[in-house]
């Protein structure tokens, strides 16, 4: 269960990074101003919470993501496994999506999630998407669920959740001219059309995500924020040096084995550069398991 929980958490985080990519990378985000485009709020154990720093949504590749960050350092994200108006069930049994909440101001800032227990007394609930306005590019709805943290058996109860007229994105911004991410995937050259690097305070890691413009194909790397030049083993289950490859929205592959070589990491300019290769296999294996080989990878990215 723990590996499955962590897998889903990483996927939720990556979806959050993708969905926030356009907003977080804008100049306005660098001066600490608000990036709120609509309303995202809820009660956490009866206390009102509002996403007053970042509130954003995306509808891409058949998925809906709703995410927010508050000025008091709480991170919240919902990912739904479809892109239509309906009520979605969030639990590992009727898995139509997942949600996670973390507070980086807490001593233990590991996340609570709807997927961390198969007992609906501890985790799970619903999200109702009531309206998608395709002309205004806004989404509205409500949610309520229980979030559970398996490692210490603690719970958060979410009530009166609302997202209203939240502006959503359907495509990603092009890469900066100074950023590069290239790799051979099963021998075929691939280049990221939209590249983004960010420091994730929640996990003290840097996430580098390269996509095509519609986020239907993604290659990502997750590494410690204090990484120094050197050679590292890419092993998803170690949860420290991770390679991820999504050849399609419905398929996720992770690094079973491989190597990351960091050539440069300038923490002052936030520029990181390196090479990589890894064998990627299914997170939840089928028979026969799907496998991809990523070779000759190179990246040079400035992270936020």
SSE order, one letter for each helix or strand: HEEEEEEEEEEEEEEEEEEEEEE
- How many independent structural domains? 2
Average pLDDT works out at 85
- Compute the CA-based radius of gyration: 18 Å
Helix content: under 10%
Work out the helix count: 1
Number of strands: 22
The span between the termini is 32 Å
Largest sheet: 12 strands, mixed
Low-confidence stretches: 1-9, 21-33
State the secondary-structure class: mainly beta
Taken as a percent bin, the fraction of beta residues is over 45%
The 3D shape can be described as globular
Could you provide a short overview of the structure?
It is built from one helix and 22 strands. By secondary structure, the chain is mainly beta. It holds the Pfam family DUF6252.
Could you describe the 3D structure shown?
The structure is a single chain. By secondary structure, the protein is mainly β. The protein folds into 2 domains: 2-169, no CATH class; 180-302, no CATH class. Helix content is 8%, strand content 55%. It has one helix at residues 2-24; strands at residues 35-36, 39-44, 47-50, 54-60, 63-69, 74-80, 86-90, 97-103, 112-113, 124-133, 138-149, 154-169, 180-185, 188-191, 194-200, 205-211, 218-224, 230-233, 242-248, 251-266, 271-282, 291-302. The strands form 2 sheets. Strands 1, 2, 3, 4, 5, 6, 7, 8, 9, 10, 11 and 12 form a 12-stranded mixed β-sheet that branches. Strand 8 and strand 9 form a beta hairpin. The model is unreliable at 1-9 and 21-33 (pLDDT under 50).
């Amino acid at each position: 269960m723990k590996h499955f929980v962590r897998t889903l958490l990483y996927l939720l985080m990556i979806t959050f990074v993708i969905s926030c990519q356009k907003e977080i990378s804008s100049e306005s985000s660098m001066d600490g101003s608000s990036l709120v485009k609509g309303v995202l709020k809820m009660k956490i154990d009866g206390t009102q919470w509002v996403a007053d720093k970042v509130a954003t949504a995306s509808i891409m590749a058949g998925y809906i993501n709703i995410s927010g960050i508050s000025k008091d350092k709480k991170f919240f994200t919902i990912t739904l496994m479809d892109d239509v108006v309906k009520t979605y069930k969030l639990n590992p049994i009727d898995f139509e999506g997942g949600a996670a909440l973390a507070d980086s101001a807490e001593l233990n800032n590991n996340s609570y999630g709807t997927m961390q227990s198969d007992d609906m007394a501890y985790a799970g609930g619903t999200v109702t998407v009531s309206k998608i306005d395709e002309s205004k590019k806004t989404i509205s709805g409500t949610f309520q669920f229980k979030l559970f943290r398996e490692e210490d058996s603690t719970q958060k109860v979410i009530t009166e959740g609302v997202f209203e007229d939240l502006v959503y994105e359907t495509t990603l911004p092009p890469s900066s001219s100074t950023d590069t991410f290239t790799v051979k995937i099963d021998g075929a050259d691939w280049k990221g059309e939209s590249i983004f690097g960010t420091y994730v305070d929640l996990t003290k890691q840097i996430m580098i995500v390269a996509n095509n413009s519609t986020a239907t194909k993604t290659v990502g790397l997750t590494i410690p924020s204090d990484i120094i030049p050197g050679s590292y083993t890419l092993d998803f289950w170690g949860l420290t040096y991770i390679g991820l490859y999504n050849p399609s929205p419905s398929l996720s592959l992770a690094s079973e084995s491989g190597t990351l070589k960091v050539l440069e990491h300038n923490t002052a300019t936030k520029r990181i550069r390196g090479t990589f290769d890894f064998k990627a296999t299914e997170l939840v294996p089928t028979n026969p398991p799907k496998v991809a080989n990523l070779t000759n990878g190179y990246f040079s990215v400035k992270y936020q």
